[in-house]
Amino acid sequence: MAGETSNLSVARMGTVHTQRDNKSIAVESKSRTSQYLRSVQRYVWDDPDKPRKEKWFLFKLDIFLLTISCLGYFSKNLDQANINNAYVSGMEEALHMGGSELTYAGNVFTAGYVLGQLPAVILVTRVRPSILIPTVEVLWSIFTFCSAAVKTTSQLYAVRFLVAICEGTYFPTIVYILGSWYTRSERGKRMTIFYATASFAGMFSGYLQAGAYRGLNGVFGHSGWQWLFIICGVISLPIAILGYFFYPDFPETTRAFYITKEEADWAQKRLIADGMKPLGASAWDRTKIFRIMSQWQFWVLPIGYFLVQGSYPNYQPVFALWLKATGHTIYQINVWPTGQYAISVVVQILAGVLSDSPLLRGKRWQTLIAMQVPTIFGCIVLAVWDIPIGLKYTAYYLTFTCAGVPGIYYACYIQSIWWTLTVWRTVLSPRFHAAFIGSACLGVGLIMLAIILQFLQDRDEKIRALNTDTESNEETSAV
Asked: Which of 3, 114, 349, 351 is most open to solvent, judged by the fewest CB atoms within 10 Å of its CB?
């Protein structure tokens, strides 16, 4: 009897140990899974070890500031891209645009965009962004409505110029605001999402025009291309109105309902700790202008912007024009090119995540080259032109891999006017032989410049590190 009791006790102890072992294994497995997910989050988004207070603050910024910024940029690019879809869907015939009028309309838009861009960053420090940005959004929504009523190309040019003046203000001011709230380690991925909404807008415009042509063409006496402008205006207007409530201005001036006074004060301190100067600390005066002009970035970066813009073959809806010239349907002409924008979205997000991740640690030149090489290949193939039909489709899609290359110096955007008049005139469609050769060459130049820029940046960092060590040694000697 005693032996049986002893055996029973041993069996029970073995069961308890087994349960404990299984529980330990489960806990250990759960811990490994949690560590893996935190590691993935560190690559994809913010550091998961940030304090709870900071996480909540960033969550609110993402919900309100980042969301309204992306919606506004989506609206802007939707109103900017719709002319290409309208052109291949009946506007060309309705306005008798038989020559290069589409090119001229694009150049008028560029001129207005530059005029709107140049004073924007200065103006936004004097007028609350929560008032300035939504107001220009309301105005470009109204002008988009007006685009549906144009009867001549002259009227189209005038309306596009007004739309561009308003839209030119948007991008630099939004970049300024995002940089005034997010630190360097938080900015890259969010800017990638912000940039990607432009490609989403290009995709949506194609689907929207296809749907408008199928379902609304002729309704109330308006053609499908006219309905595209009307629908774009309907989308843009409520986004503009939301902006009056969602844009938080700057940490020093914010009145946003979702930012407390303590959070605003703390936001200023964390940006100063990140190396940012407070609002108004560096006013635009002669000293600041000459200081900027004395740096190599002022002279070298505009060259990069020219190469960025010139190597991206999007000055004409080249794929859509080729589809139209080869007898495809209106639906196919509008929908098939949206695959180009889908590729650009994926490429942009991957590039943003990789360049900010611990893998590349904020370096950009590798991802820039990776995005540019397929575009160069696509442009070379299309310049050859007499190729298998499947390869031609592939080349058209590959030309949009460089859509993620950000604009480096936006004040030099004026270069696209003479570039389009030289090689991207509509009368040269659908082949655009010289344009594709030029884009490929400029893409190669951009890759070379990216390597040079990285060398110059590394040199500056070594100089700063050397100066820091020198100052540290001097302080030690003084003590």
From this structure: 3
Which structure tokens are listed for 151? 């009867």
Burial 174-193 (b: 16+ CB within 10 A, else e): bbebbebbbbeebbbbbbbb
The whole-number pLDDT of residue 435 equals 73
Q: 271 and 418: one domain?
A: no
145 and 252 within one domain: yes
- Name the token pair of 247: 């844009």
Q: Do residues 117 and 410 make contact, with C-beta atoms less than 8 angstroms apart?
A: yes
For residue 305, what are the contacts with CB-CB under 8 A and spacing of at least 6?
Answer: 407, 408, 409, 410, 412, 413, 415
Give me the pLDDT at residue 463, please: 75
Return the CATH number at 293.
1.20.1250.20
24 is a domain residue: no
Q: Are residues 182 and 201 in the same domain?
A: yes
Contact between 154 and 256 under an 8 Å Cβ cutoff? The reply is no
What Rg, from alpha-carbon coordinates, does the chain have?
Answer: 27
Q: How much is the pLDDT for 313?
A: 77
Domain hosting residue 426, numbered range? 286-463
122: closest CA among 359, 411, 369? 411
| Measured distance CA(165)–CA(388) in Å, rounded | 43
Which residue type sits at 442? L
| pTM for this entry | 0.68
Is 157 in contact with 108 (CB distance < 8 Å)?
yes
Please give the share of the chain, as a percent, with pLDDT higher than 70.
Answer: 72
* Residue 303 CB coordination number (10 Å): 17
pLDDT 10s digits, 205-226? 778 878 887 888 888 888 989 9
- Report the distance separating Cα 226 and Cα 237, nearest Å: 17
Out of 275, 295, 312, pick the residue that ends a domain.
275
Among 240, 275, 310, the domain boundary falls at: 275
Alpha-helical segments (H) within 274-364: 286-293, 296-311, 318-325, 330-335, 338-356
**Does 471 fall in a domain?**
no
More confident residue, 211 or 38: 211
| Number of independent structural domains in the chain | 2
The answer to whether 315 and 418 have CB atoms below 8 angstroms apart is no
Higher-confidence residue of 434 and 261: namely: 261
C-alpha distance from residue 432 to each of 284, 311, 389, 422 (Å): 43, 14, 17, 11
Q: Sorting pLDDT into bands at 50, 70 and 90, what band is 413?
A: very low
- Alpha carbon distance 320, 338 (integer Å): 10
